Amino acid sequence: MRHIMSPLDFSVEELDQMMDLAVDIEKHPDKYAHACDGKKIATLFYEPSTRTRLSFETAMLNLGGSVIGFASADSSSASKGESVADTIRVISCFADICAMRHPKEGAPLVASQVSSIPVINAGDGGHQHPTQTLTDLLTIRSLKGRLSNLTIGLCGDLKFGRTVHSLISALVRYTGMKFILISPEELKVPSYIREDVLKANHVQYEEVIRLEDALPKLDILYMTRVQRERFFNEEDYVRMKDFYILDKAKMELARPDMFVLHPLPRVNEISVEVDTDPRAAYFRQVQYGVYIRMALILTLLEVKVC
Fold it and tell me: What's this model's pTM, rounded to 2 decimal places?
């Protein structure tokens, strides 16, 4: 039995196989419509989520399975003081696989150590968000045809953004990757990502403040929101939240074949006028998220479809 706490839990070869499976699911959905008949996924979400929770639930329903779970800690026994370890022991009696989001870093890992079913980390605080990373990898590969020799711009909250940390850690395993890290000084990527991931793997990167300086060089622009829930005070959040706004004028600086991704939800860091640009791929990214989560469920449950 396997769990996924980090995108690094799978080798590059395994990730490629999972993405191949996701592509086949996209092309032949009927082939997989009953692959998980009789199986249940438990979605245990201790903090709010729209895309991730509903994406997991849609993925399992598309595979013929069913869904149980809760959408907030207040609607679970956590509000009575039940531990994560006890919760997963109980859920293991009801479901075949579990997706857990928790505000505390390491909570899904604690669950996996006592669980008798596969546990998927669906986001733990500012730490990891591996299935968003799988979504991002599949999206980039589908749009650009490869996961090598690309210049990726990551913009916005690079300090608290777990999607950014996970994506960098995953992409450094592919050849010829270069990163341009675009953020204000207060939201720069943490030193452990800089030292232990980028420098340790001899990956080219540069840090800039102005989005306009980076745009002409990029194959992919990965925008992120400044996350109110990660700030200790409202004043700092208000000061940072409008630091970057991608609009039509800035898009004119970018290459014709550059694509814009965003893990969503967005606030106002991407103007709605960009939505009609063919390079805006963030809603396609959501759909790829369903395919890759279907592939992940099949992989962890060891379900083979001929």
Answer: 0.91
